[in-house]
Q: What sequence folds into this?
């Protein structure tokens, strides 16, 4: 089932999400719904706070980015094959490599894209959808998507990385999103 995505301004997007246990009610269905919602809105990742659940859960499919690159573009992301994975109770172990800029967007902040600097690699401890412990290092665009989704479970948004002047320039667009004065081709829930 495709779920509505929470729009900028909703308090759930600013709260630090809680770890969950394998007994979390309806977890398998929730994960399936998150995949459907993400693909239904043309996303490459979605975090539980974006569907109004303050839990440490996000899904990422960066394979679709890597698979759609031209051959010469793949050289820009060496060692990044992309992933399609569920991340539960994720916590960053370390970030590394050189910071690099990339134009990011967010399903909760539609029609706004800005360049954001992020680390080249991220190492995470998490459990998968079967609650098997994992510790992996991701790089390139996959690391970027993971860091973006990870920010959601820590109550951060990509616009938090922008310089104050840039944020002020976006204020009216952000206000329009908060007020529901925006049209998108997926379901959204706006703050009251």
A:
């Amino acid at each position: 089932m495709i779920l509505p995505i929470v729009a900028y301004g909703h308090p759930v997007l600013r709260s630090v999400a809680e770890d969950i246990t394998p007994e979390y009610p309806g977890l398998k269905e929730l994960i399936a719904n998150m995949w459907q919602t993400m693909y239904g809105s043309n996303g490459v990742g979605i975090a539980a706070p974006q569907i109004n659940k303050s839990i440490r859960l996000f899904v990422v499919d960066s394979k679709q980015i890597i698979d759609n690159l031209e051959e010469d573009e793949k050289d820009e992301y060496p060692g990044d094959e992309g992933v399609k994975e569920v991340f539960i109770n994720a916590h960053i172990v370390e970030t590394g490599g050189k910071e690099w800029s990339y134009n990011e967007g967010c399903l909760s902040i539609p029609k706004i894209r800005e360049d954001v600097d992020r680390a080249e690699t991220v190492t995470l401890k998490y459990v998968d959808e079967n609650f098997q412990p994992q510790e992996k290092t991701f790089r390139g665009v996959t690391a970027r998507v993971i860091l973006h989704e990870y920010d959601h479970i820590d109550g951060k948004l990509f616009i938090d990385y922008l310089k104050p002047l840039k944020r002020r320039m976006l204020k009216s667009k952000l206000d329009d999103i908060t007020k529901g004065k925006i049209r998108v081709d997926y379901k959204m829930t706006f703050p009251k």
